[in-house]
Amino acid sequence: MNILTLIVFGILVTGLLIGTVKIIAKQVLSVIIALFAVVCAYFYSPAICDLIKNKTGVDDYVRAKVSSIVDGDIENKVKYDYYMETGQDAEALDPQTLATLKNKAYSIDPKKTARVNILKYVGFPEDLTEVMINNVSRYDTMYIEANSFSDYVSIYMVDRLLLMIANFVIFIFIITAFHAGMTVLEKSPGVVTGYVNKAGGAVLGGFISLMIIWFVFMVLKDGKSETCIEAVKQINSSTILSFIQENNVVATFFTGVENHINGMIEIVQAFIQMPA
Prior knowledge:
Number of strands: 0
Number of helices: 11
Oligomer: single chain
Order of helices and strands: HHHHHHHHHHH
């Protein structure tokens, strides 16, 4: 066990002990629970999405509806373009030829992520589209298998919708459970409330200590000094510290914010540089 591991343990234990002797206000605990709910929603929403898909089948129904609408729009666009290029009425085309034209006009690259394939056909100016594609390519990891672009879009949209619903359900469930528990505690004897208050304070103290550790680990990882490099070596050599680092919620949050801010800046710059 290296020195940094001992320091981390000391910080966590200190946080727990301080939490037990401090009175924890309901308002403060509400904020902590809200943050906890956000973290849980972020990490567990994919599992809820899978549960909805496997148990209800509602995603297949919605996807079919969305795919039908998108396919109709694509067909109208392809027919119009065919008429403008050839001067012939596209209504006379056989289904196979029409399907070929639609797949050619809205092709899918299986090696590209979902947002990249969809952004190509949004209709933004070419320079702006290129900037947006370069931006989302940095963090988008969603790949989709589909036979047509309309199916591709429907899968993406329904999956995003289910993810939003899952996030909302998890967040509301945790907040509701917390307030229900607080209501029960407020009606409990003073001794019970006191013990729960100490336990809650310990959890709060430990949580704050862990947040501080995550923040320090994030700074150390990005640091270039000899002290930072040595600290990172100690983190990597410790199973416990490596686990804490691999599950660094603070670093994940700040990385996501940084990616979105950089992406927004690049998009604004692309707008500015576009010819009037």
